[in-house]
Specification:
heterodimer, A: alpha+beta, 3-stranded antiparallel sheet, 8 helices, 3 strands, 59% helix, B: alpha+beta, 2 domains, 6 helices, COMM (chain A), COMMD2 (chain A), Commd2 (chain A), COMM (chain B)
Chain lengths: 199, 191
Amino acid sequence: MLVLLKDEHKEHLKFLTGVEVGVVREFCRISIEFIKNGCNPKVYQSAAQKLEVDAETVQYAVEGLMYLLSETSKLMTNEVDFQDSISILGFSEEIVQVLLAMYLENRLMIRNVLSDMSMDLPHYYDLEWRLDVQVASRSLRHQITPNIVLKLHLEEDHEKSTHILQTDPGNLMQLTKELEKALDEIKSTYCRRIVRNID
Amino acid sequence: MEVSTNVLQGITAANNNENVPDDCFPALVTSACQGILNQSPHIDPRLRKLDQDVLKETLASFALFISEAAKHDTDVQSLMSLLEECNFSKDRIKTFVSVFCKNKPFLQTLLANTHESLPHVLGVKWRLDYYIKSNHLEKTHQPVYLLSLVTEIPGESELQELNFSCTLEQLQMLVGKLRDASKCVERFAQL
């Protein structure tokens, strides 16, 4: 899928057409670093001094690259579409190859960053279980009641929570069977057909 | 099984034919059992002719005596000797034992359920979604299971639900662990 760049965005990236490949490579490295760990404005200043341009120009170019890389990663753009998308910017073939290599190398990492930003539901993290037999209580001595104590660990936005539950053998078997059915469902002809059509 | 002096006094009071005539005794023991099981005062109409103070004392004492006997699973022989010590007639002892034995399984079921417990899992509801894209990411294309564990907390009338999601791999891990637990329970049951 092609990425359509806005005029403003094209303007910001234009700066990179007039510099050496080594500089473009360095800008790519900075953009990837910023996507991974957040921006550090001090870098703009020192790069601007070296290149003898405004700090703003450097900032726009880096931000332009970050936008280009995150949009193409978001859409999972293929190689041909990536090259076609940036062809309008007038980069030399060498620079296009640098950008493409940088995109392909970091696409999965960028998708992970984007996936971390996506809406997160409380999800399964771990389950611990224990088999107990209740032998007495305040209200009844001489019992033999099997209990399965479950400690369910969930995670949401990198924060973990635990839930302590219990169940009896009958319900445990039922629970297991029901979830096995849920697992089987994804392999059903119907689900496979849907998945094939979406993919 | 230990019974307090107050309870023994209450029971002994029921042994007096003037307080509780022979024809009222079975109704008294039955009412004491029903009182525990129904958790509401159920007074047999035949007991209305008794003195209200005596009725209160004897009914409460028998209810305590019966619940203690059910709680400790006291054997019939010990119950009979306890009642003999309170000078109950053979007929009354027989009546008590027969009513008690008839109600014992229900009483013990009630007592077994009368305790604090962790939320008890009764079942699971599940839904299978296919995650296509979000505002941040396209072509995600992965199955997502939304699970809802239905739990019961003793003493609360409404069932609770614990909701969470699983990817396919996470659900496979969860089911693997539940299978291990089920197998462990099955092996234990065969011992």
